[in-house]
Every structure is written in C-alpha cells, then in structure tokens.
Recover the amino acids of this structure.
C-alpha cells in the first residue's frame, strides 16, 4: 500500500512527503518539475517525473505500487498570473485534475485529497469564513480550484470515490528539520519575499494595495505553518481510509494579519528595518481571508502546533539562508 503525492517536489507537497515518510508510509511522488525540485523529495520516496494527466503512467504507478490514496498538490498557484494566463490555469488545474480523477476511478483508488483554496469564497462572505459560506471566486486560479471541487463532488456521487477537499489559507514557514522549504526563485508569497529582502536578495518589499477595506488598508490573510497543514492531510488520509464520507475543510488558524503587521513581525524577528515600497493592488487579490477551522478541529481533532508567527518567519529565513540566492 502506498500514497501517490502529485506535486510532491513542490513547496507543500515536499513537506507532505516528509510527513508521510516520517510515519513510515510508502510514498510515490509524481511531479513534472515545472516549479518543483527533485532534491527536495525525501530520499525514501519513489520519484517519477511526469504529468498527472498522463493516464497510462498514473495507472501503471497505481498498479505497480498498490496506491490506495492520492494527495493531489500538482497545479499552478499564483493568483495574478492566473488573471494573465487563464487558459493555462484551466488546462493545468482543471483539465489535468479531471484526467487524474478519472484514472483513480478506473483504477479503483477510493481515497482522494485535494488542495483547494480560501480564495473560492465570495469577497463579501462573513469572516472568519466557514465552509458553507457562498463560493464566488474572483480569479481564474480560484475558479479552477472550485471547478475541480465540483468535478470531485460529482465523481464521488456517481462512483466509489471518496474525497476530502482542504481549502488552504496562506501557507508559510519551512520544515523545522531544514529538509525542505519554499524554493521557487520567483515565488510571490509575502513572507518568503520578506525573507528575500532581509537577506538582500530583493531590494525592497512591495506592498500590493494600501486602499483595501481593512484596518490599515493592506491585505489581510491567515498565515498557517506548512507543517500544521501537512498534519491536517495526515488526519484526512486516516479519516478516508477509515471510511469517512466526502467533505470539505478549511485549514487556517483563524487569525487575520495585514501586510503591514507581517512587515512589523519580520522587523521584530530580525531587529532590522525592512525597506518597503507602497504600490497598487495586484489583479485578483481579495481584501481579507480568515479561516474558521472549527469543522476540521471537531471532526478530525486537528490541533495546530506551530501557530506562532515568529516561528514561521524564522523557519522561512533559515530555509532562505540555505539557498544560493
Ligand atoms: C496565497 C497562495 C494561493 C492560495 C491563497 C490562499 C501562493 C503563490 N498563493 O495567495 O495559492 O490559494 O494564498 O489564501 O502561495 N503581498 C504584498 N507584497 C508581496 C507579496 C504579497 O503586499 O510581495 C500581499 C498580497 O497582496 C496579499 C498578501 O500579501 O494581500 C498575501 O499574498 P501572497 O503571499 O502572494 O498570497 P495570496 O495571493 O493570498
């Protein structure tokens, strides 16, 4: 029995692979290395370079390694990029996911965990966001995630497939053991970029939008440590293997922090001023995203252990230092 992790060479997928290996699971990683790194895949995992939409390849992996669960991370994730390249996002996120889901159904893989996003919720939905708030995504990225949720919902209704959708809020931080972290040089994540400014790899931090309807005018997000997110997936996996019904869970801490609050926290951790430049909003960015994660806490007993912004910032900085620029 083994778990197939798509996108397992990427930021969150590589943490997930370590979380699975650390508890003794057999793991097969499928990644096309478009943004991921082979070096970040745990040594004990079987690594295969390829596309999730390659149905012959995925079917052969499922049979050869007796895959009983798929955790599907592979996809494109940058909101403003999706506004500029919607067709690429629908191809990579929706069309490929449909093919993967079909392969799972044909090959009788019953357990499927899907990486979705807090950006599926309506901009005027009630914060903190509960899973039953209306979904009205405003970017092609968020729409592509919601479309895949719908495909899963319909496929699960019509077949033996059961799935758990995890709607991530803003994932940050790095493996406390220093084995992996966010590595894409052009990464757009706020805390990652702040770390690059601290280390002199970027001249200043752009503040994208100062006129949002938020207390200080900058975007508010709920930053969750990647290790807590990986643990949520382990619980979801156990639940599905134990026969749980298909369900959707938010993954966040329930704390909204503005861009300016993050800047101050980075300055507190480093004891240095962070050079910033105020700028315009990025296309597709919603003002505020804060999770209500009561459902996953109650149903799966999820308990965040790294709910500490200074720790998130320090681990991001430590990982950034290990990289060569
Ligand atoms: C992130 C994820 C997205 C996920 C969403 C869930 C990435 C690339 N995107 O999007 O996949 O679905 O969280 O909530 O991981 N900002 C700046 N300056 C910067 C970078 C960002 O001001 O240099 C601001 C943004 O405008 C936003 C906030 O910081 O208000 C967070 O931005 P970012 O880290 O890029 O994540 P999201 O766009 O929220």
């Amino acid at each position: 029995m083994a778990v197939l992790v798509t996108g397992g060479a990427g930021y969150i997928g590589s943490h997930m692979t370590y979380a699975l290996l650390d508890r003794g699971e057999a793991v097969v990683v499928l990644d096309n290395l478009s943004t991921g790194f082979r070096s970040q895949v745990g040594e004990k995992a079987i690594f295969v370079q390829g596309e999730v939409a390659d149905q012959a390849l995925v079917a052969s992996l499922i049979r050869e390694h007796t895959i009983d669960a798929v955790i599907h991370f592979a996809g494109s994730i940058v909101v403003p990029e999706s506004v500029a390249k919607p067709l690429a996002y629908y191809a990579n996120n929706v069309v490929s996911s449909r093919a993967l889901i079909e392969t799972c159904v044909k090959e009788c893989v019953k357990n499927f965990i899907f990486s979705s996003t807090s950006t599926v919720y309506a901009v005027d939905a009630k914060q903190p966001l509960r899973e039953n708030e209306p979904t009205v995504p405003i970017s092609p990225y968020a729409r592509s995630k919601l479309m895949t949720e719908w495909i899963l919902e319909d496929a699960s209704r019509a077949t033996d497939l059961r799935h758990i959708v995890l709607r991530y809020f803003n994932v940050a931080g790095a493996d406390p053991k220093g084995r992996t972290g966010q590595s894409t040089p052009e990464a757009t994540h706020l805390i990652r970029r702040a770390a690059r400014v601290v280390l002199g790899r970027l001249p200043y931090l752009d503040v994208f939008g100062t006129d949002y309807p938020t207390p200080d005018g900058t975007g508010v997000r709920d930053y969750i440590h990647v290790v807590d997110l990986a643990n949520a997936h382990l619980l979801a996996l156990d639940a599905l293997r134990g026969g749980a019904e298909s369900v959707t869970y938010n993954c966040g801490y329930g704390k909204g922090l503005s861009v300016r609050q993050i800047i101050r926290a980075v300055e507190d951790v480093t004891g240095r001023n962070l050079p910033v430049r105020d700028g315009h909003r990025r296309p597709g960015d919603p003002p505020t995203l804060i999770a209500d994660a009561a459902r996953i806490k109650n149903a799966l007993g999820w308990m965040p252990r790294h709910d500490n912004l200074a720790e998130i910032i320090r681990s991001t900085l430590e990982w950034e230092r290990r990289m060569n620029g």
About this structure: Residues 77-79, 117-119, 168-170, 188-190, 193, 205-209, 219, 221, 259, 282, 285, 289 surround uridine-diphosphate-N-acetylglucosamine (CB under 6 Å). DSSP finds ten helices and 13 strands in the chain. The mean pLDDT is 97. The chain has two domains: 2-172+224-251, 190-221+254-322.
